[in-house]
Amino acid sequence: MLLLLLTASVQLWWRYAPDERVYSTRAYNYNSRSIAEFRVNGMSGGGGGGPPRDGRLAGGGNSIVVGRTIDVSRPLLVEWQMDYETMEDAFAKAVVPTYRAILPPLRDSPGIPDGAYMLVLHFYPDHVEAEFDYDKPSPNGRGVTAFYSEPHPPRNNGANSEAIAPFLR
Fold first, then answer.
1. Nearest Cα residue to 38 out of 98, 81, 77, 92
2. Taking 60 as the threshold, does the pLDDT of residue 147 lie above it?
3. 30: how many CB neighbours lie within 10 A of its CB?
4. Using CA atoms, how far apart are residues 45 and 39, in angstroms rounded to an integer?
5. CA 4 to CA 36: how far, in whole Å?
6. Which of 84, 92, 112, 140 is the residue whose CA sits 20 to 30 A from 157?
7. DSSP-derived secondary structure letter, 140
8. Whole-model pTM above 0.90?
């Protein structure tokens, strides 16, 4: 009986104990407007990049934040605020769309591959998805080759967005 209780306690501890890891963060924008800023668990992620151009599937991908601590055992709170459409809107401080999505713990979905070093967020008009970039062995077996996640159509494995009050002014 004691062994059963101890086993259950260890499993619960593994499931709910903090599991903090450090990842860089990159964002892809699939919206018709630029993302002024995004946040992950309250920490700024910088701008999310402009809208797709020149027939590309997504804009952005170059907004990288280095060294962010993320507890992969807890839900991921992602907030983002769209940019102003015109300079007149900016001067008038018009209200811009702002959204929030709560993704499941990264340890569970999408799962953390070996060699993961970057959290990649994909911002779609109605939801956000997360995945990881990771190092994989090179084809010749010498060293590693970086795998970069590319823009892709929605996989519908993320979290739906809900409108919230703007956090930038």
1. 81
2. no
3. 22
4. 5
5. 52
6. 84
7. T
8. no
